[in-house]
Amino acid sequence: MRELKHQHKFIIFSELFQFIKNSIVPLVIFLVSLGSKIPKKYGGDYTEVIVIIAFFVIVSALAIFKWKRNVYNVQDEGMYMKYGIFEIHERTVPFSQVHTADISSSLIQRVFNVCKLEIDTAGGDKKSEISIFSSKQEALRIKSIIFKVKENENQDEIVEEKNIKKLTSSLKDLFVMATFSTRILAGFFIIFAFYSKIDDMLPKEFKKRAQGYTDNVMKGVNGVNIIKYVVILIFIILFISWVISIGLTIIKYYKFTVIREDDNIKLSYGLFNKKEVTIPVKRIQSLIIVEGIIKKSLGYFSLNVETIGYGKDKGESTMICPIAKRTVLDKFFVDILPEMNISYELEKSPRKALKGFLLFRLVPEFIVMSLVAYFAPYGYYIFLLIPILVILYYTRFIDNGLYCSDKFIVMRYRKLARETIIMQKKSVQSMEKIQNIFQKKKAVAKCKVTIAGDVVGNSYTVGYMNEDFIKDHGRF
């Protein structure tokens, strides 16, 4: 007979919070509509208090009842779970089908020594197959059973001293990452959105007085000084956005650590919401080296992995290294992922295809620019973008590359950032040649490679490659 365990009692507070969060708006509407309809002699003066107390009693009872019904059992070959309030669900997940087991803990959860264990299979659903609250020791014990890792006497730490190879991202690296992150632009727009909301909420009298004060200050100020003030204001907003970006990046990726332990890669990161993730190496379908325009010039890169049954929510979990110096890449391949450690020389796009590559992209944009120049005041200034676009597209052309061997395929292309994808041939589902009539005359074509994924797979495409090269290496 299986021994069933309850989840940590923290789930009661978690469910209580979820109930309140999901019900707060209907509750307020209900109170507003009900309060004036009950006569005083029947307790009309205390309607709100009675309803709120009844609400808390009901949701507390439901949370406790859910905790009582939510049980699980861990065996050597699989995990059994029983849950539900009005409708009882029973689920058994064989460990052989488990792809990832992630441990996360928020700041409040760490105070109570509790964490959340999420177990995923290859299913395409965004929600985890199994999600339980437990102590850190219990979560690590379950992970050790799933991935057949020997239990360590000190299970409070994810890092062991022996047979462990690891890489870490320093605060300096995270600082560089935040400085050149798109979060700066996001912060810029957040500040403007916040300003517009405040502007809508301010009383008209206050805005009228503020406008009068501004008009008095601006009297006698010439156009040059106005431009200076605008530029200074933009720099202030960008500085605030930069500070916000640094804060968000450090909070999310604080002490980002990558560990290779036996046949698993473990990730640990986060300041307030700490996450611990285990990725079986055999589930990795491709490794992606990302080099941004500015980051590449400073010698930095980031690493992503595509896996089956992982990274299904928001894409954040596919990042295996947020940022590191280029000199760390060799160490990563030797210590963390030697299975992808190969030497290769990319086949580049032939120079004869450069003219067609540029024309195919610049002609549509030139037409749009002409319309802007014709209809918009001073629109002809938009033609100043043409040299920038030529440089950008030329850089994209020379970055194109393809490598094929008996065991590996390597693709390289550039959108804004340059991406190099390394994948094992056994992970490839299909390799496709795509060609239009203009490319056929130049004997070039696109190469599209599709690898296994959760539902339909993931595809990578590199364009304007030699047609014969694709034909020769497109057969498995």
From TrEMBL:
<feature type="domain" description="YdbS-like PH">
    <location>
        <begin position="253"/>
        <end position="315"/>
    </location>
</feature>
<feature type="transmembrane region" description="Helical">
    <location>
        <begin position="46"/>
        <end position="65"/>
    </location>
</feature>
<dbReference type="Pfam" id="PF03703">
    <property type="entry name" value="bPH_2"/>
</dbReference>
<feature type="transmembrane region" description="Helical">
    <location>
        <begin position="226"/>
        <end position="251"/>
    </location>
</feature>
<feature type="domain" description="YdbS-like PH">
    <location>
        <begin position="67"/>
        <end position="143"/>
    </location>
</feature>
<feature type="transmembrane region" description="Helical">
    <location>
        <begin position="12"/>
        <end position="34"/>
    </location>
</feature>
<keyword id="KW-0812">Transmembrane</keyword>
<feature type="transmembrane region" description="Helical">
    <location>
        <begin position="358"/>
        <end position="376"/>
    </location>
</feature>
<protein>
    <recommendedName>
        <fullName>YdbS-like PH domain-containing protein</fullName>
    </recommendedName>
</protein>
<dbReference type="InterPro" id="IPR014529">
    <property type="entry name" value="UCP026631"/>
</dbReference>
<feature type="transmembrane region" description="Helical">
    <location>
        <begin position="382"/>
        <end position="405"/>
    </location>
</feature>
<keyword id="KW-1133">Transmembrane helix</keyword>
<dbReference type="InterPro" id="IPR005182">
    <property type="entry name" value="YdbS-like_PH"/>
</dbReference>
<keyword id="KW-0472">Membrane</keyword>
<feature type="transmembrane region" description="Helical">
    <location>
        <begin position="174"/>
        <end position="195"/>
    </location>
</feature>
<feature type="domain" description="YdbS-like PH">
    <location>
        <begin position="405"/>
        <end position="456"/>
    </location>
</feature>
